Amino acid sequence: MIVHAISHMRLPADRDISALVEYFAEPRRIPEDCDAMTALLPNTGDPPAMLRDAVERSVMELLSREILTEKTPEEELAAVGAKLASSHGRDPAEIIDRYRRDLKEGAEPYWAVGASYGLDDFSEARKRVDIILFGDCDIQMEADFLRREAARRNVDLRVSATFPDDIRFASEHKHDAVLIGALRARHLVAEDLANGFNPHAAYIAHATELLTKLRELTSAPILIDNLPEPTVQPLGLAERGVKGHRTRFRLTNVALAELANAFSDVYVVDIAAALAAVGSERLLDDGQVGFTHFGSPGWMLQRPESEKAAVHDIFPDTAPLAHAVGGDPYCRETVVAEKHIDTLVTVTGIGRKKCVILDLDGTLWPGVLAETGSPFAWTPQISGAFSFIGLYFGLHEALLCLKKRGFVLACVSKNDEATVRELWKYPDHYPTQRLLKPDDFVTLRINWNNKVDNIRSIAEELGFGLDTFLFIDDSPVERDRVRQRLPEVEVWGEDPFGLRRRLLNDPRLQIPTITAEATARSALVKAQIARQHLRAEIVGEAQYIESLQIQCRIERLTSTSTKLARVEELFQRTTQYNTTGRKFSSSELAALVGNPNALLFAIDVSDRLGDHGMVGAAVIVDHEIVGFAVSCRALGMGIEHTFLRHILDEMKDSSVPLRGRIIPTPRNIPARNLYRDNGFAEAECGLWEFAAPTASHGLSRPSVFTTSVVTPLGSGATA
Fold first, then answer.
1. Which of 1, 168, 203, 506 fits a disulfide with 185 by CB distance 3.0 to 4.6 angstroms?
2. 536: how many CB neighbours lie within 10 A of its CB?
């Protein structure tokens, strides 16, 4: 265990990390001394260059955590003294405690499991996410398991934990999300109120107070656990009606779901379902120690021997208990950490997919369609719809659910397209509302071309990055070929029996809220493909734009707007035309529309081929455009320029010039010249300023503005 001498920050480390720290007993240089540090480590068989890179990353990580420092001891003490000096005159113990709280990482030491950090934890660049845990031992003991589960998904998760009543902790720590465990008021759920029956009153009151106070301090997403369902009941089968022990907790979970819906960016983590899916009896201790503790049975296997004094040092053999939990005293933490990270991934949009590409023969239906003559041979006389045929009907139904969530479907099949279209039909007695049809796919590649080339073609047509695709195929050869040649693409298909559940449960195939644009996304993408075909047919760009008959509706959003969820989704999903790469939560947006120094604009677009929906949003704070995003499906029509010109027109009467910031990301190259091409001058690196006057209606114009004139870049016209 490495403990920082001043901050007391704790880092459990394996022998490799310990050896690196010990090597810095004397000053070293990076990267010059990396080869010498690599020689300290045992020969793992890894290529020297890879091992050296892991060492260098590890050292830089230790620097970021202040385990190592570039300062001399005197400089380090001076720096800490400078931080503490601002609190001069206060109690010295309180000052140092505040300083240590600010740097705190992990859970309470006496609850920490503490799996060691090693080179593998720092061997590759990972997306950093900081979270705060509010809760007791049940969730604080999970801190290290959360880190491990996140690392498995290539996320560098930093966890700071405290108790539910320590609200100010949220204002002291950098965080991207807040996670709240089961509250202590759960013990009151089993009791009746003096003035009547309301089992969840105290619990919901506590949750309401906690969420309200947190929302005053943070706009980050909040994840709150619901309560496990008891595995035993005090009165057994006699627990009937709504007052039954287990039913009380179910009602509390329903009330908690309703409460979360009343707050912006608050989501319930369904712990009850996660535990039940694995087996609650081996994950909950209400069968051993109490009706409302809801801890892990495995914790009893980890108690210190000193606690046996309470039972005269006499206790049953724990071997049966160890067997009951499968030999893993921390199986509960593993299960719940996976559920928590799943929810965090969905809420933050990490690794979210956009398109599922499906093989047909052997995947969507059994056998080869050209040989069987129909997708299925089912009739009610053969079997029910949930027999063997149910495996395929269930897969189709799951994919239709993804379509409703806003994910688009495409297909790649080595086949004759005319034959497939002729045979891809269902008799009237089929449950067609559960089955995919060709029209459910935004694009199809049914030909004899290489599937890798077809997938590349789809990516180019849709304008999506390869890492946003999921490819499903029953052929191991095709799966391996795609994995080898398109490593960014996620590939499934090995387990047909687990496919439906995986599609419905994978957090990268979920979104926090369903918007109208999400539901209509397949239609929107199809219309975009039709526009591409039209563009190919018309020679001139200006003629193409004119032929679309584009209509724009630009709106300044207010606190009563119903579009904030779509604005959040737009910033979450848009990577190419996003000037800063910043993502705004719905709670941040709600705060911004109520801020007199902030403006939020949105643009809806339609044309003769269809409605694009809301395709753009801009966030302006203190006369600076801190976020400007336009969906890729609306690019190439000059909409982004019309949108920016309208914003300039709205703010023309301001005495402060409008500024716009460009923060380069790996994918936002198309957005980097937005301000340059619209009359802005670069005042400093990445910050552009517009000072030229524009003649229009100014801020007195209505909050909703409609135009039918959209001009591409370079035309010289304005909307």
1. 203
2. 9
Q: Which residues are within 8 A (CB) of 338 and not within 5 positions of it... i.e. 6 or more apart?
A: 149, 274
Interval 167-219: pLDDT, tens: 999 988 889 999 999 999 999 999 876 667 788 999 999 999 999 999 999 98
Measured over the CA atoms of residue 499, residue 504, residue 505 and residue 508, the dihedral's sign is positive
Cα 279–chain centre separation = 27
By C-alpha distance, which of 389, 476, 482, 468 is closest to 434? 389
Q: SS3 of 277, please? A: helix
| CB contact at 8 A, 661 and 688 | yes
Helices 331-348 and 271-278, axial angle in degrees (round to 10):
130
What are the φ/ψ torsions at residue 611 (nearest 5 degrees)?
-100, 125
The answer to whether 408 and 354 are in contact (CB under 8 A) is yes
Note whether 541 and 585 are within 8 A (CB): no
Q: How far apart are CA 680 and CA 208, in angstroms?
A: 47
**Amino acid letter, 332:** R
Q: Compute CA 600 distance to the chain's CA centroid, rounded to the nearest angstrom.
A: 23
- Tokens standing for residue 630: 């336009």
Among 404, 498, 496, 417, which Cα is nearest to 454's? Answer: 417
The residue among 617, 613, 405, 590 whose CA lies nearest residue 511 is 405
Rounded Cα distance, 39 and 37, in Å = 5
| Residue 672 near residue 638, CB atoms below 8 Å | no
What H or E segment, with its residue span, contains residue 529? helix 521-537
* Contact by Cβ (8 Å): 141, 193: no
The CA–CA distances, whole Å, from 19 to 15, 24, 32, 64, 596 equal 6, 9, 17, 18, 55
Q: What is the pTM of this model?
A: 0.78
Q: Specify the DSSP element, H or E, that contains 36.
A: helix 34-39
What residue type is 584 in one-letter code? F
Q: How far apart are CA 623 and CA 599, in angstroms?
A: 9
Q: Which amino acid is at 254?
A: V
In 3D, which of 460, 237, 254, 474 has the Cα closest to residue 365?
Answer: 474
Token pair recorded at residue 195: 């003035």
Q: Which of 473, 201, 153 is nearest to 337 (CA)?
A: 153
pLDDT band at 486 (very low <50, low <70, confident <90, very high): very high
In tens, the pLDDT along 471-485 reads: 999 999 999 999 999
Half-sphere exposure of 386 (CA within 13 A, CB side): 0
Cα 45 from Cα 37, distance rounded (Å): 16
For residue 158, which of 268, 64, 63 has the smallest C-alpha distance?
64
Rounded (5°) CA angle 146-152-156? 65
Whether the link from the prior residue into 221 is cis, omega within 30° of 0, is: no
Q: What are phi and psi of 263, to 5 degrees?
A: -110, 150
